[in-house]
């Protein structure tokens, strides 16, 4: 009994030195990343967004996007459709992702100029999403078990107290599909939503930094949050992409039939 008390005292002292709150003393890095995974799993959502591509010299190109998402019946996987509405040269371009908890996600892209839906393979996840600094694999959060997570310390960024967690791929396939050797996430202590994420290339060099801002609680009963602003910067090229949420509807009725290749090419 005395030994258990001594071990607990040492654990508490260590947590205090790391700056971790005692309320999370038993929460591991894996559990924190699981909370992060589910915190943005909104039941249904339709949104309008503006995506701005900003070159290193400050030139800016805006794109208007509609997204539709719905949580699948298992409460884990999501279905997502992204459609470009502006400018004219990419209007009608669509992307469909259907998550699979125990298999590779289904990824499809529709190119109106070719009148064709094309299936993407898992290795395409590291490719740029429509010329942006986001990749296809970053449209929805990756599965937690595909990475080994280590809690590094606590840190305050932009006045937000955060847990800092390093995540490394559990296999060469995950590493190659994502294009990253590791990532470091700053998770807000109040919600587990990420405030900042650093992505490191296959050589271990910092490649991209993502900032998420203006968090909004959209499902109070389930503690689901949404970042209304996301900024991804490629630190190696100086190019960045800013995504701003213009409108959101979480009460809309969305049919499962909407998430199909036929629906993707019908609009």
Mean pLDDT: 90
As a whole number of angstroms, the C-alpha radius of gyration is: 20 Å
Shape: globular
Q: Order of strands side by side in the largest beta sheet? A: 6-5-4-3-2-1-13-12-11-10-9-8-7
What share of residues is helical?
10-25%
Share of residues in strands: 35-45%
CATH architecture: Clam
Number of helical regions? 4
Roughly how many Å apart are the termini?
67 Å
CATH homologous superfamily name? Answer: Lipoprotein localisation LolA/LolB/LppX
At CATH level 3, the topology is outer membrane lipoprotein receptor (LolB), chain A
Q: Count of DSSP E strands? A: 13
How many domains? The number is: 1
> What is the N-to-C order of secondary-structure elements (H for helix, E for strand)?
HHEEEEEEEEHEEEEEH
CATH class category label:
Mainly Beta
Briefly note the structural class of the backbone: mainly beta
Uncertain runs with pLDDT below 50, 5 residues or more?
Answer: 1-23
Sheet of most strands? 13 strands, antiparallel
Describe, in plain words, how this protein is organized in 3D.
The protein has 267 residues and is mainly β. The protein has one domain: Lipoprotein localisation LolA/LolB/LppX (outer membrane lipoprotein receptor (LolB), chain A), CATH 2.50.20. 15% of the residues lie in helices and 44% in strands. The protein has 4 helices and 13 strands. It has a 13-stranded antiparallel beta sheet with strand order 6-5-4-3-2-1-13-12-11-10-9-8-7. It is globular.
Key features of this structure:
267 residues; 13 strands; mainly beta; disordered N terminus; 44% strand; outer membrane lipoprotein receptor (LolB), chain A
